[in-house]
Amino acid sequence: MTALRLGTRRSALATTQSGWVADRLRAAGHEVELVEITTEGDVSGELLTAIGGTGVFAAAIRRALLDGRIDVAVHSLKDLPTAPEPGLTVAAVPVREDSRDVLVARDGLTLGELPAGAVVGTGSPRRTAQLAALGLGLEIRPIRGNVDTRIGFVTSGALDAVVLARAGLARLGRLDQATEVLDPIQVLPAPGQGALAVECRSDRSDVVAAVTVLDDADTRTCVTAERSLLATLEAGCTAPVGALAEVVEGDDGLELSLRAFAGSEDGTFELRRSLVGPYDRPEALGADLARILLEDGAADLTPSSSTASDHATHEPEQAS
Ligand SMILES: NCc1[nH]cc(CCC(=O)O)c1CC(=O)O
């Protein structure tokens, strides 16, 4: 096999993530060449959904894979649509970063220390819903932009705080900016947050074999449960969703524990449910917990009227 052409977007986060995968492929003995891909989402200043919604970033990269312009692509798993792409396969889900969200606030403040009326920026319906449900009187302001831009809103004094994925800060070496790691009891991360998906064409067995060595079984199992929950909910609920699976020690060996959130963006309704199941059946666990959420009221949740026209839910969380 000649050099693997690894496609990457130009953003700092994308190049860091692609570089991480490239380093591991090189360590496994492969030659890797990075190929830059420009996506519609990178050039547009519009809200993501105005230019096509879920998977805007993923779509251009996937086209390059299918066209044969690149051999390997690295996605943030949480930005990848749940529907599989015909002709492509996620050959590896490498070991994931801490999947929790963090607060980046002025003056080193934590969520509990922010005064009522403090202005917190996020473009994510999931974060909006969970922050509102805390009942702290925070004012949520929709923002978008890459990680640097969003941190900049706080350092410039435009916002009191923003909420970001800890994994993004960690990969960019910006963890020192975080003023609090948010407990999943308060804010559950997006399904798949902190994990990467390394994708290639299903018919390239040589590439699949090269990439598969990066797969981490526990991470794949956890994100499979989280994304199965999301996929099942998408059929019957448009509400913001958070999910986090963890491998736990059961009486008879390893088990999977899955926690989930669904709620309204104004914070007036929230559902939190959890379920433990066998380690080797992550898809069933996710689907079962989704059905519990739907039965307990998630099916009746509709996007709040003020935001419904701006963004449907289950969207990528923001440009990165
Ligand atoms: N498009 C948003 C996005 N996609 C992936 C990450 C961070 C890394 C990850 O969650 O894997 C982010 C930034 C954020 O939510 O703060």
Instruction: Describe the global form.
Output: globular
What is Rg?
A: 19 Å
SSE ordering: EHEHHEEEEHEHEHEEHHEEEHH
Mean pLDDT: 91
Helical proportion, percent range: 25-40%
What CATH architecture label of the largest domain applies?
Answer: 3-Layer(aba) Sandwich
Q: What small molecules are bound in this structure? A: ligand PBG
Q: Specify the structural class.
A: alpha/beta
Topology, number of strands: 13
Which blocks of ≥5 consecutive residues have pLDDT under 50? 46-52, 305-312
Q: Report strand %.
A: 15-25%
Tell me about the biggest sheet?
5 strands, mixed
CATH superfamily of the largest domain: Periplasmic binding protein-like II
CATH class descriptor name of the largest domain: Alpha Beta
Strand order of the largest sheet: 2-1-3-10-4
What is the number of independent domains?
A: 3
Helices, strands, pairings?
Layout: E1 4-8, H1 12-27, E2 32-36, H2 40-43, H3 56-67, E3 72-76, E4 88-92, E5 101-105, E6 119-121, H4 125-133, E7 139-141, H5 147-155, E8 161-165, H6 166-171, E9 180-181, E10 196-201, H7 205-212, H8 217-236, E11 241-250, E12 253-263, E13 270-278, H9 282-295, H10 305-308
Parallel strand pairs: 1-2, 1-3, 6-7, 6-8
Antiparallel strand pairs: 3-10, 4-10, 5-8, 5-9, 11-12, 12-13
The structure holds the ligand NCc1[nH]cc(CCC(=O)O)c1CC(=O)O.
